[in-house]
Amino acid sequence: MRGVRSHRAEPGGAPWWRRAGDAAWLVIAARLVVGGVFVFAGLSKLALPHAEVVAQIQQYTVIPKLLTPWIATVLPWLEALSGGALLIGFMTTPAAWLVSAQLASFCLLMLIVVAAGIEIEDCGCFGQLGWKETPLQVLLRDVVMLGLMWPVLTRRRDAWAIDAWGNLSAEPEDDDA
Predict the structure, then answer these.
(1) Which residues are CB-neighbours of 100 under 8 A, at least 6 positions away?
(2) For residue 48, how many other CB atoms are within 10 A of its CB?
(3) Which residue of 103, 119, 145, 175 has the fewest CB atoms within a 10 Å radius of its CB?
(4) How much is the pTM?
(5) Per the structure, how many domains does the chain have?
(6) Is residue 98 part of a domain?
(7) Does residue 142 lie within any of the structural domains?
(8) 97-153 per-position pLDDT tens digit
């Protein structure tokens, strides 16, 4: 039909989901939003006493109690550092994969919590800031952020990233000349 966009690829072109990384504005926006959320979440947990972070994680009764002190120590640093790397574009691809893995694991945890009917008053995602989120709200937020990671993972080049600073002055060479 004329004037109606198709979900199929245009002749000779890739489907829309493969071209998501070509939209520079989307890549930059996704990096800034998801990276910023992760930095904020990590720093808000680092500001709390270790025992409070352990208590927040223990409310997810599906996580073994032996692992909770270790998770409470490592997770805030992992969130803050991987989010910071994504935010500034330092080692962007590894940071994007690390953030995506965290988001996937958070989604899986929330699915288990929702399916098991575990009552959680506050997810503890952002420390003790007063944001009370249900597991379903956290799941939806994390699914959206996981979707935002797709353009970052499929990008070609991001000029607003530290990774690209060495390549800014390089002009593409014309092979036909």
Answers:
(1) 146, 149, 153
(2) 17
(3) 175
(4) 0.81
(5) 1
(6) yes
(7) yes
(8) 999 999 999 999 999 999 999 988 888 888 777 678 889 999 999 999 999 999 898
